[in-house]
Amino acid sequence: MLPSSTPGILGDDSLATFDAIVIGSGAGGSTVAHTLAKAGQRVLILELGNNHFPRLDDPSGFAPPTFANDEVKMSARSLIAQDALIEPRSFRPAEADGERTLVGDANGLPRNVGGAAVHADMKYPRFRPTDFQLGTLLGAIPDAAFADWPVDYATLERFYVEIEHAIGVQGPEGSNADPFAPAKSRPYPMPPGLPMYANTILADAARRLGYHPFAYPTAVTSRPYRGRPACIDCGFCSGYGCPTHAKSSPAVTLLRDALLTGNVQLRFNAAVMRLVPNTTLTQVDGVDYMDATGAIVRVKADRYVLAASAAESARLLLLSDPALGNSSGLVGRNLMFHFQSVVIGVLRDRVHGHRGRSVTMGMSDFRGTPNDPLHPLGGIIELATSSDLIGEAKNYALALGKSGDMLRRLVLQSPFRDKLVAMIMQAEDAPQATNRVDLDPALKDVYGRPALRVTYKNHAFETTAREYYVPKMLAIHENAGAQFGLVAPVDSPSQSRHVMGTLRMGDDPTTSVCDRAGKLHDLGNVWAADGSLFPTSSGFNPTLTIQALALWVGANIVSPADPTTVLVES
Amino acid sequence: MKLVGGGALLAVLPAGCGDNISLTRGLFFDEAGWATIDLATGIIFPGERGARDCMAVRYIDTLLAAFDATPPAIFAGGPFSGRTAFPDAHGAPTMQFPTNDFASFLPLSRVQELAWRMRLYGTAATPGGAFNDGLLGPTVGWRDLYLDGIQRLDVVASSIQEHRAFRYLAPEDQSFALDTVASDKPEFWQALVEHTLEGMFGAPEYGGNELLLGWRLVGWDGDSAPLGHAVYDESTGAYVDNATKPTAQPSPGVVTEDFDADIINMLTVAAIGSGGKRFF
């Protein structure tokens, strides 16, 4: 019976046997669960975090979420962010640096029903066709492991269309679109909403300098869409759960649709401890998780899907058995983040970057072309803003060490919020086998699991691209009338929340962990369906591609002969 | 360390000293602790509509006593506060306001409760919270950080002026004492600064931002939903920008004000030091 009346469960609480268990309810997990449930499979979703979408499984309509325009709740007190006090991670640049150099947050992602997309501002560009072929196009690069994807853009194109329409993406068409973007077989279901004033100032400058800014494809409604209202540009977007369901995040789209099939049960506050493999490590026979009371529960199904995020999916394999799925030795390796270069401009005038969808425009002129020294591979530029008042004041007080009258004057004159415009380049991050996640030898989380450790250092590939493009970004700020241009440090360690790699897909089981359908080469009944599959990172926000790929994985599970049979939108 | 009986003490103090002390007892702070932290927040963010007017100390006190309430006063509810109205079909505010969902707090999961007990009471004092203490050492809870910080402020105060608690020092001596404690108790200082600013600029349901003075000081829109800053008008098929607080165009009536000389100097240093530029 829907909605579920059992605490801790969304979906059909009477289901007791399952065809599939999906670990994670975010972009990948929601998508694959939806595909399986639509095909009649009974699916159990296990979600580590809490639920802030009450009655998400109510067929009579949407209930309000508990998210709000509340900076204390979402930012200062981290309602859904990974809490480093109970789930610490460790970090070190390289093995030679010892067991760890930092403990705390290392690229953590939100824990809650709906996954990390809940707090994202949902920028949803597609990857380009060449992004799937960088192994071939770039050739051998020392200390890097660029590889072709085993699926290409042409294969994924209809899967992109399916996601864009199933969840609701707004984006520009024709002469307003990104001139470098690949052709789409179907227009976006919604046109762009209003651009933020702060973004148009930079876009106008970029245009004067010959660049090609465009309205950023974004998974937010600009029209009433499939039972959800049009966005009201409340301004609390990046870092916030949406108070009106206008954000087309997986929770209120494919996850809700999956729950409403009646074939899905979602248990939240359920921390997977380990997969239980058979003795020969050729398949998985169960999953142990810690429930909301702290008890260990074992659940079983015919097949298992890892969708806990690139970092956590690899960690779950390592927690189960270091050899599980790991004949290649690559589990956890080739960890990638987008290499983010942030260049900010401080204007004389107030541009209220706190109103709107956080990022409404972008440009891909700096994405570059493989092997063109005049256009090295950088990434898409987000024309961005700064919006949080408490965060701004803390920056002056703690990062700059100001208090008293000077702090008061900074808050009132607001150089780093109300007069700030920014460009963020999400650049290709070269895959390196030495960059990886593994288990910290001593640090634990609240569930008693060895903590996740990030070992990560940048390659000259991406730092060279930064050096090339940062002066061009500064020039745009100057043209826009900025008084100051600042290059903001966001790495060492990386602050990126775009986490990819770790279970890379490929056709050769000696150089990849998963096959072209997302199934682990070594295991008969385990698939990955999140950013872990990415062989390369591209230079575009990853979540649309995570969803398109998860749909591809799910389609290959239910219809291996012709995965396109699951597509209904194209 | 209570101010009970402080009347006699006040009588021997020089005129003007201690005039601005609040005699409030909090849920966590006693009168002396409340007065000390209240004054300290005012040093961090002084002036009219500053931290003291905003009652940042009440925010801090509410946070430190969060587990006195059920559910604990950690995460306010949602989605709306009732401070802005629902829009009509054309984006104008109606007379209909949502109820204040912020006024009730969200129940915590088992691990959320554990995390917040660790944060407030310390890892060693929280059953099940010491799982990394062997490796990292115990994490001191904010309640103890504040009590220790208050005591430390008084110790430093008495070294400035014998037998004088922090709250009875002259303002310039209070600033000096707080600077001293900021350097030798950096964890307390960081907590105090962060909480002061949260108490000024967070939603008032958390105990600070009295009469929205913090938001009014900076002209902050506050929580804008469900009105928002733009509305899709189905009758015309177009978005309508908010007339007074638009997203897509300059705000009406906003004038250019240049940065003061100190801030220009600071930004110049920051820009050049970061590898950026000053463009004028």
Features:
heterodimer; A: 570 residues; alpha+beta; 6-stranded antiparallel beta sheet; 11 helices; 19% strand; B: 280 residues; mainly alpha; two-stranded antiparallel sheet; disordered N terminus
Concise overview:
Chain A is an alpha+beta fold and 570 residues long. Chain A has helices spanning 27-38, 71-76, 134-138, 153-168, 197-208, 254-260, 310-320, 389-399, 405-413, 460-479, 543-558, and strands at residues 9-11, 18-23, 43-46, 89-92, 102-104, 214-215, 264-267, 271-277, 284-290, 296-299, 301-306, 333-337, 339-346, 361-363, 379-384, 420-427, 436-444, 450-455, 484-488, 499-502, 526-528. Chain B is mainly alpha-helical.
Classify the beta-strand content of chain A into a percent band: 15-25%
* Average pLDDT score of chain B: 92
Weakly predicted, low-confidence segments of chain B: 1-16
Alpha-beta content class of chain A: alpha+beta
Q: How is the main sheet of chain A built?
A: 6 strands, mixed
Distance between the termini of chain B: 54 Å
Q: Name the shape of chain A in a single word.
A: globular
Rounded to the nearest angstrom, the radius of gyration of chain A is 22 Å
Radius of gyration of chain B: 23 Å
Task: Give the percentage of residues in beta strands of chain B.
Answer: under 5%
What percentage of residues of chain B falls in helices of 4 or more residues? 40-55%
The string of secondary-structure elements of chain B, in order, is: HHHHHHHHHEEHE
